[in-house]
Amino acid sequence: MITEYDTDSGWLDEPEESEIPEWDDPQEDYIREPRPRGRKRTGKKKRQKQLRRTLIGIAAAAVLFALFELILPGSHLRRKEVVEETSLMEKIPEGEMPKNEPVIQEKKYDSLKGITEEQLLWDVLMEYFNGNKTAVLGVMCNLKAESRFKAACLEDYNKELWAIDDTVYTERVNRKVIERRDFLESRYNGHSNGYVNDYEEWVNLDGGYGYAQVTSYDKKEALYRFADRWFSPGGEGEEYRFNIGDPKMQAAFLLEVLDSEDYKYMNYMIRNAQNVVDACYYWLKYYEIPYDPYCDDYYTLAFERADSANSIRRACDPDFGTETKNSSENSTGSSSETESENSSESSGD
After folding, report:
1. pLDDT for res 132
2. Which of 9, 32, 65, 226 is deepest in the core (most CB within 10 A)?
3. Would you state the pLDDT for residue 24?
4. 113: closest CA among 254, 248, 252, 253?
5. HEC states along the chain?
6. What Å distances lie between residue 248 and 185, 233, 245, CA to CA?
7. Contact at 8 Å (CB) between 200 and 207?
8. Which residues pair with 209 in a beta bridge?
9. How far apart are CA 156 and CA 162, in angstroms?
10. What is the CA radius of gyration of the chain?
């Protein structure tokens, strides 16, 4: 230990501890504990962050669900609207119109005039085909299988999908509650939620409608345009309001289809068919083009549909019973004449 030296008295004794002044360490104030770089979050902050993420996910899913419900046909929301509107229409007394709708002439277009729709079609087609019953039955057998001779006929699976019947659906189309775009609504395979088939690339979500259950966009559009002309000034039903399910209008539409350039060959083949089965087949193959459950190019389906020919003739053809009776009488008469000739020849010998 170094001690102080005095020149007069020599070396001094070591100073006592109490005499040594206390000095503060100058670096002591600047020393701090280092802050950890990856400071751990508390459990509360973690839970808050997870809750925010969960709420954002739920909100996004709800927005997407609402968009799909508004856009897609057959959704729960649209079906609910149909049911509510249907119940509202049922509450409206007959002859009264909702206040928010324009006044439309409520005069019914009586195109049947006391006959059945089946008889109407028979009379119209018999006149068109010049009494060719084979051609008439070829068309009518297919119409019976499709719509049971009911013009205001919505395809059956859509009644369950929309929770609606034929009459209410037709009335909604007539009043433009179901707009033209929705009536014609179609989707392309792979780009919608429509069912997929292997025979047409256009698949209609609202299904078939009318006597022939027209389903594809172009056929439905042709029917709608024809109805517009029919009930417009100068048309057959110009004094009446639009009715997409009118029997006479749809019967006339069938004649326009048969006369069109697109189905000229089909018309020729139906007129020259040798039997009802062949006439049924030509309608199936060239116009209706339905799903073929037997996958044999509609041959078996044509045989099945042709089975209803006799029931149609029995209901519509006034000559059905008399023709059978006359044919039996002619056969009986010819057999008796043959017997008398034979007997006379034997007596002469």
Report:
1. 97
2. 226
3. 55
4. 248
5. CCCCEECCCEECCCCCHHHCCCCCCCCHHHCCCCCCCCCCCCHHHHHHHHHHHHHHHHHHHHHHHHHHHHHCCCCHHHHHHHHHHHHHHHHCCCCCCCCCCCCCCCCCCCCCCCCCHHHHHHHHHHHHCCCCHHHHHHHHHHHHHHHCCCCCCECHHHHHHHCCCHHHHHHHHHCCCCCHHHHCCEEECCCCCCCCCCCCCEEECCCCECCCCECCHHHHHHHHHHHHHHCCCCCCCCCCCCCCCCHHHHHHHHHHHHHCHHHHHHHHHHHCCCCHHHHHHHHHHHHHCCCCCCCCCCHHHHHHHHCCHHHHHHHHCCCHHHHHHHHHHHHHHHHHHHHHHHHHHHHHC
6. 25, 17, 9
7. no
8. 154, 214
9. 10
10. 44
Predicted TM-score (pTM) of this structure = 0.60
**Cα–Cα distances in Å, from 199 out to 62, 179, 193, 283, 295?**
37, 28, 17, 16, 11
Give me the mean pLDDT over the 296-300 stretch: 93
Residue 288, C-beta contacts closer than 8 angstroms, at least 6 positions apart: 142, 146, 212, 213
Amino acid at 25: D
pLDDT of residue 245: 94
When pLDDT is cut at 50, 70 and 90, the band that residue 236 belongs to is: confident
**307, 113 in Cβ contact below 8 A?**
no
